[in-house]
Design goal:
With 345 residues, this protein is α+β, with helices and mostly antiparallel strands. The protein has ten helices and 14 strands.
């Protein structure tokens, strides 16, 4: 073999003309990673070529293309998105179904001058709900019920709000709440006060209310009727030929009819206007986060699933006071049993 076939400075090892090959004591050249690479003119490497390729790929992995990176992101991004949605649903479900009863005082006041609320509470209702059970109940209290009013002595229950507002604006709801808690042995969490003139606006924003009467009520014969806001308010307040007990039943009937109308898919486009009218018409200390639980409870039970009760003649007997006023004397033992059954179980 001719010496010119190989460079003089050949690293590492020397070419032996006697053997026609490189010195066996030399080390094979390597790359920076310590992996043998073949150089033209050198003998082939011993060992498995596939294994050596795996080592090279492991130490020098190929660069990922932009498309593969995007595909990976989409793959894992979708996974984390789905996981986030499931966690959000779980949190909402726990929030809505968290065990706990909430008692609300809902009452309406007579007409009063704009800018003040010095008026009697003409309609008084206690509403309780528990989304977990679910259990909802509505108790109507007669406005002529004779009770002990803190700081005022004995009087009709509807005067508690009037006396407090006359002395200090904005104190009426709390005064009525305290009166009911003291006399009914009940813990009330929040209150909601509604002006009767605003009730008409709520009904009109809904496009009127449809009612279905199984028997004559408030001057209307049995059957289907569509009432405007003005007629709906007259329906609630009507006492012609009846007394306050019938009037309370009419109020409960109208409230449940409004709920049914709100749940009607035909009315869905009117809901924003109804919500606007509703929040403009009320004074309340109910936190905003309670409303989803309230709505969810009503949806679970449905308007017809609400246990509506009127504090009737068996629980309150007519009586004439020393001043000659016609009032209702409460039978407290029976009332307390009823309240405990509706609001504490």
């Amino acid at each position: 073999m001719n010496q010119n076939q190989f460079p003089i400075n050949r690293p590492p090892g020397q070419y032996s003309q006697q053997s026609g090959d490189f010195d066996q004591k030399r080390e094979s050249p390597t790359d920076n990673a310590g992996i043998q690479r073949r150089i033209p003119g050198y003998p082939p490497y011993p060992g498995n070529i596939t294994a050596r390729r795996r080592v090279i790929l492991r130490k020098n992995p190929p660069k990922k293309s932009a498309l593969s990176v995007i595909n990976g992101f989409l793959k894992y991004g979708c996974f984390f998105t789905i996981l986030s949605v499931l966690l959000a649903i779980l949190v909402i479900a726990v929030f809505l179904l968290f065990p706990g009863r909430t008692n609300l005082l809902v009452f309406g006041i007579d007409y009063s001058d704009p800018g003040n609320a010095v008026a009697r509470s003409d309609t008084i209702m206690l509403f309780t709900f528990n989304p977990y059970t679910p259990k909802t109940a509505l108790l109507s209290i007669p406005r002529d019920l004779w009770v002990s009013i803190p700081g005022e002595g004995e009087n009709r229950i509807n005067t508690a709000h009037f006396f407090a507002e006359s002395q200090q604006a904005g104190s009426g709801p709390q005064a009525l709440k305290d009166t009911i808690e003291q006399n009914f042995n009940l813990n009330i969490h929040y209150y909601l006060r509604l002006r009767f003139e605003s009730f008409r606006e709520i009904v009109d924003s809904l496009g009127g209310v449809d009612i279905e009467l199984n028997e004559p009520m408030a001057g209307y014969p049995a059957g289907h009727h569509h009432l405007t806001g003005r007629k709906a308010l007259a329906f609630v307040r009507d006492r012609s030929g009846t007394d306050d007990f019938f009037r309370m039943s009419q109020g409960q009937f109208m409230l449940k009819s409004l709920m049914k109308n709100l749940l009607n898919p035909v009315k869905i486009l009117r809901l924003p206007a109804v919500a606007k009218s509703f929040f403009e018409a009320i004074d309340t200390n109910i936190p905003i986060w309670i409303f989803p639980r309230l709505v969810f409870s009503i949806l679970r039970t449905g308007p017809d699933g609400i246990n509506n009760v009127v504090l009737n003649r068996e629980l309150a007997n007519p009586m004439v006071t020393d001043q000659g006023a016609m009032v209702l004397m409460p039978n407290w033992p029976l009332i307390h049993l009823l309240v405990n059954e509706l609001f504490n179980k």
